[in-house]
Each structure stands twice: as structure tokens, then as C-alpha cells.
Amino acid sequence: QVRVVESGGGLVQAGGSLRLSCEVSASGFRVSTVGWFRQAPGARREMVALFTSGGRTTYSVSVEGRFTISRDNAKNTVYLQMNSLKPEDTAVYYCNYDLTYWGQGTQVTVSS
Looking at the DSSP assignment, which residues form a beta bridge with residue 94? Predict the structure, then answer.
């Protein structure tokens, strides 16, 4: 059974940083698509940053240059380092594995 567990959200002032972590219990972690989505109140869930199954990274235009996705395959964990945070980054952030499995979400709130 696949489990996806996020951690690391919180409240931060604009311009600050946060790092999210996501541990995935799945045997195919190294070769599967894994990454981060977010959903703001009243908005659709959107992709933030992903590792594709081929190992490349892709970012939303709105976060490119500020956010960095990384992974530790030995720990089956993917990270999202978020710098220069803006109030519009406020959302629930979800980890996704294999474009199928979702974590419970972690709240990120950026105050102005």
C-alpha cells in the first residue's frame, strides 16, 4: 500500500523561506513521477514542481527561480525548498506520487 506523508508547512512572512518534505512508501520511488501541487482557497489544484519519470524537473512559471525541488532516493523523500515567499503562495501544498497518490496536504501561509 502506497503512503504519501508531507510535513514542513507553517506561517511565514513575505520574503521568508520554508522547506516541505514528503516521504513516500513505495518501491518504485526512484523511477516514478513525484512532486508538489498546491490549492489556494477557491482555486483549482495546480502543479508547483515535479520530477518526471525520466528524472527531469519541471516548475510552474509562478515559482521558477524561487522554489527548488530535490529528492533523496535513499530515504524515498522529495523536498520543496521555497524561498522569497509571497502572499500569493499561500495554499495547501500536496505531495503527489506517480500522478496517482496524494498526501493529506500541509498548509503554507505567507503573511504580507
Answer: 37
